[in-house]
Every structure is written in structure tokens, then in C-alpha cells.
Amino acid sequence: MYEPHVDRRLFLKGTAATGAALALGVTTAPTASAAPGGFPDYTYVRTLLTPSRLAYNPTGEIIFPTVRGVYDKLSSPLGRYYLYYAPHDAPGGVCLAYGDSLEGPFTEYAGNPIVKNTWSPHYSVSHVSSPHVMWNAGAKELWLYFHGENTTTRLARSKDGISFTYDKVVLTTSMLPAGTTETSYARVFPHELPSRGAHYVMVFMMNGTANHRDIGWGWSADGRTWTFAQEPLVRHGDVGAVNVGGPHLLYRNNSTYVVYNKDKESGGDILITEVGNDFSRRNHLGVLYNSRSAAPENGRAASPSFGTDGGVPYMIYEAGERLSGAIAVARG
């Protein structure tokens, strides 16, 4: 079950293509830009979700947004767009908000959390978090990748984006070199790697005994069973950071890029590296989005998710210090 290859050189236009753009992480509007790689120069628009205003708010923090256009995929969705997010600290919990525009407003789903830290008989953990949702066109399902604990990434599947069926563990520290202590914050994208027989790619955060976080990656034929590179895709030291995380793939000019955030101590910005369609390049291009010192960012932007609404590119991301921030939107 895999999505057919999409020629990423094409610029998708209008709302009919919005869902495909959201599913693939494509920024599509040919906008004048000062950002590297020809990408839009994103500008903060507004805050979308603030923990203190949410009914489900066990820890006063939320992280890791993922936005998906569902109006052309689901029957009678709550809104045109589904925005998934979660608290990180125990108990966490995968949450949903919905709206009709990427600029908001988004309405909190009354039944949050839709995935909890206990799911009998599959697991019972301190927390679940970092929800990434991918549209699987072959299965006609939304596939949810999430972590809990920080050593384990899991997969659940849904026909409506709200009620999920547990599938399996897809990534653990045991699948990486000895000394790996964390494998989490994973995002999965349809991506053709013919030489590896793969139709999907995963990017994620990995940590080890040296306690410096890097970006890892893996590939899969079906999105369920994975092979992982044993060396990082992006090393923290190569981009002048203490830690990097929150990776996302983007496509432009017939090439593939990984976007990720620096820790606040290293500047708190969102960086971009060209890895190429076969992931063999390491062309570090610098800052894609410079976090502002003003609220709500307060010097940190992280964990971006990208989409296009009516031909306009958007980035939805964590704004603010880790575990005390909000979810915000920027427009390209």
C-alpha cells in the first residue's frame, strides 16, 4: 500500500491541490523569497493554539503540530483541515483541532485526547506525544506515527482521523547503534527510493550517550516495516548546534530538503539542509526561519509542519521556549 509517485517539480495550484501539498510537505506557491533554496520567506501571522485556552491541558504545554487537508479525503470531516498536536510531559496525549483555514481559527476537538498513554493490550507508558499524521492513499487512511516512551515510535491507523486502530511499533533505540538512548519525533512522507525498494521515508530525532541530538532517517516499502541508516542524516556539530530536532521533509526544484530546528542555546532557529532525492547530499543552507525575540516565539521556533491553502504556503510550528510555548502559523 503506497502512494503513487508525485512529480515534485510541478507547482500545485488552488484548493484542489491543497490536500496533496499538505500530504507531501510541498511548498507550492512561486513566491519571491529571501530564504535559502528558493523557499518562501515565512512571516509570523498569529498564534493558533495556547495551552491555557484548551480544555485538555494536563501539563500547560503543547508541541509538535501536524496539519493535514482532509476535505477531499474524509467523509463529512469536522473542518477542511485537521491539526494534530500533543502535550509532551506525562501523560501527554495525542490531540486534534479542526478548522477551515490554515490561518485559523482552529477548534479543539471535544474528545481529546484521541490517543492516550495507555492502550490495552498494546502499551502502558508514562506519556505519548509528537503526533505526525500521513495520508496513505493506497489504504485510504490517515496513518499516525507517535512516540511513547522517547525510545519508541508507534503507528496507528484511522479512516476518519479521529478513531484510530493500533498497528505496531515501527522504531526503537534497538534498531540504531549501541548507545542510542532516544528515537522519537518522527515524521513519515511518501518518497520514492528505487535503489532501496522504498516508497516512504522517515526522519526523526536521535540521541545517544553523548547527549547531543541529531537527525536520523530510514526507509520503507509499506510505511510499516523499516530499515534505518546507522549514521545520522544531519549531525548537530555540522550546523553549529548543541542539539537539532523536529525534522520535516520539503521538496523544491526536483530536490529534497530536510528542515529542522536548533535548540534555543544555539539560536532557536529553523534550519534547512538539501539531502537530494536519494539522500546522498549534505548541503547545509543555513536558516530557513529566523525566530523572533518577541512573543510568542521568544527566541525559539521548532517542529514545523508545512501546507498550502489557496496557493499560499504556510508553516505551522511550535513558538516559544520548549514546554512553555504555543502553536503558531507563519505565511510565505
From TrEMBL:
<dbReference type="InterPro" id="IPR019546">
    <property type="entry name" value="TAT_signal_bac_arc"/>
</dbReference>
<dbReference type="InterPro" id="IPR006311">
    <property type="entry name" value="TAT_signal"/>
</dbReference>
<feature type="signal peptide">
    <location>
        <begin position="1"/>
        <end position="34"/>
    </location>
</feature>
<dbReference type="InterPro" id="IPR023296">
    <property type="entry name" value="Glyco_hydro_beta-prop_sf"/>
</dbReference>
<protein>
    <recommendedName>
        <fullName>Secreted protein</fullName>
    </recommendedName>
</protein>
<keyword id="KW-0732">Signal</keyword>
